[in-house]
Amino acid sequence: MQYSYLRFTFILLTISFKAPFTRSENFICNSNDVRSLTSFSSSIDDGLHWNTSDSNCCTWIGVTCDNSSVSSKRVVRLELGSKRLKGIISESLAGLDQLSILNLSQNFLHGYLPARLLHLQNLEIIDSSDNDLVGPLPGGSNLSSIRYVDISRNNFNGSLDAALCESSSYIHTLNLGNNYFTGEVPANFGRCSSLQQLFLNDNHLSGNLPKSLWQLQNLRILHLQHNLVSGPLNDEIGKLSNLVELDISSNKFSGILPDVFERLKLENFFASSNNFSGHLPMSLVNSPYILILNLNNNTLNGPINLNCSAMVRLTSLDLGSNNLHGPLPDVISSCQRLTNLNLARNNLGGEVPFAFKNLQALRSLSLSNNSLVNISSALAILQHCRNLTSLFLSFNFHGEQMPRNVNFHFRNLRALAIPYCELTGSIPTWLSGSKLLQLLDLSWNRLCGTIPFWFHEFKYLFYMDLSNNSFTGEIPESLTELQGLINMKLSSEGLSLGFPLFSFVADGAKLKYKGIWGFRPTLDLSYNKLTGPLWPGFGNLKELHVLKLKENHLSATIPDSFSGMTNLEVLDLSYNDLSGEIPLSLEKLSFLSKFSIAYNQLQGDIPTGGQFLTFPPSSFEGNKGLRGQQLTPFQPQQAPHDVQLADEEMTIIGLQFGVGIMTGFLFTVTLCFASGWVFAKT
Amino acid sequence: MERKVGDLLFLWLLILVLLLHPVWLVLGNMEGDALHSLRSNLNDPNNVLQSWDPTLVNPCTWFHVTCNNDNSVIRVDLGNAALSGQLVPQLGLLKNLQYLELYSNNISGPIPSDLGNLTNLVSLDLYLNSFTGPIPDTLGKLSKLRFLRLNNNSLAGPIPMSLTNISALQVLDLSNNHLSGVVPDNGSFSLFTPISFANNLDLCGPVTGHPCPGSP
Where's the Leucine-rich repeat-containing N-terminal plant-type domain (chain A) (predicted)? Predict the structure, then answer.
């Protein structure tokens, strides 16, 4: 997508050099143009501040006239992007017969795109993206000069029509993405022979792709992602010798991947979330051009037979959520430019190969859900990957011990997730060397001992999940000094992973994040055996959004200072031994949307100001001494369908997953359900 | 043993059917678009809406937005967030919304009549803002509404009679506005006292202490 903007800018530049325009005030606009613009402005309800009584329209905001004629000036550009325009696009614009650039993008325009606009002989660029335009595409266009058309991010519907590009021999970019187009991709797209970039993504297109599409010899970028297109990917795609980027992810393609990649110069290939099966094609795993390969969430099988001596440019490889089988190949370590590697949710098994220590460019690695063994060896090897910033190892190393009395160095590590491994032992001291840590997830293990005092040395830590372990002792008071939760700006740049992250809620709803910065700043210590008080210093954590301490043995009162956590959205203190009253100051927490103090020893009145009336009775139940109208609610026809705090556990389990993650999850459920049957066999 | 295998299969199928239910996909996008147009119409000096990224599949990971288990929005909690600008009609598309908390901001313009489409709404808290224009008659369609707090704005015109039909209404505060006309005392309004209507332009009726002209 960035390509298209670059190209757009480039076109703008070339045009402005080609014909120098002036905003001359000495000349008078062509009267027809003034009429067209005045009529256009009367159909805009808001956002356009033209003084239409001034007949020199060349000085109006967004209007550019040419300099060619002495008598009167002609409008050649109308550029009104991001002006918060409301209203409809008047057909009168079609009267601007010298118009070459029309930019109405990023406004609130509704109604139809007037068909007459698509007959402007001089129009080179039309951008009406990001509006609320509706209706089918007008047919029968005659845009003989058009080069660039972008009507993406609107509400266009109906079947697709290639008329926009058929009539022009110059058009290089057609963007119809993010609309509601239905039906098949029509065969006449094959006649848009000058097209270099075609975006049909994020629509409801279905059926097979027409073979004629593979005749577009100039095509460089094709985006078809997020549609319902089915059938195999035709061998003839090998004819597209200029194709650089192909995104067909999230469709219903099936069959094997065509073994034609030796004929392509493809750099970026995205085909995740389809039904592709079979082995990785030999021409693909030998491609010297590929930079990014994403085949996540298909049903590919066979070994990972990458030829890294041929794949010299490979930087990002995502083969997660397939049926690829192990062992983890040594040869991957020869892909010296590899920065992102996701092999989660396959059937790899075994240990991390010793050669992985040579992956010196590697920044993000996920090997989650692969039944790997020997966590000590895995960490001992991976610590040599000096650029490693994100490491996701969930659902592996079942029941092993967290290596402790060793001296691992993960100096650049920013995200570490090893949940759901039933690891024993305690939090290892070597972790304290990872001073850049921003996200730590060790939930759903069997770790015990105390939470170490040195966590406050993680200046950038803003997400920590240690829930569902057996930690004992007090919450370290030093957690109230976490700089990343006191002043977010300290935490510098966002961490790009090269692949999306997922978390899931126990009942199966899944949430997708683009990177760890999408996560709400969180401290989750719930479901442990922690004792002692709630530190008043928690009030310092102004940037904390989620504080979960439920199901521990915490005692004493809720400090008044908790109202200092001004960004708090979730506060769960349920199932502890807290006493005293609910501080009235908590009414100040205006973003608080989930709150529970159920099953404690609290007493007194429940506050009624701020957010408090919006919390359900279950937030307060199990406290004998509490009084308040929330406990005896007026019941409308049915109880509110709230997300119940008690049922929810959120844990990062890493990376792209689709069906694969569900399989992992179901497998666990099944194990628990039928453990008698499973273990009887062994 | 065979029965157990059967049980297993059934469990897998059941869970798969539940997981593959496609409702949330469609809902999520539309609701994200609706909230994103709200963001476009608000000024947000403290960047509390920074995480509202419309390119995500749904708005459930956005800060200050809460979804139910079907990934449909049930809460928007933006009280005291220093927001100004206006609301958008698209808010009416959040079919499962229960709590709309926008109190203590500087939001201006009218209350969109489309809010009457939010039939699951339990709490509409728009107090302490700068809303103008009338209270939409359509709010009477909010049959589950328990909290309606529109106090401390610049709302004008009459109190819609339709509000008396909301039998669930527990808390009503319309004070400190420019409302005029008759204060109803029938239906759910029989619960409320003068404090709910205090300091308006020209309200009359038994509950205000000012009898309406022409009344007995």
Answer: 31-66
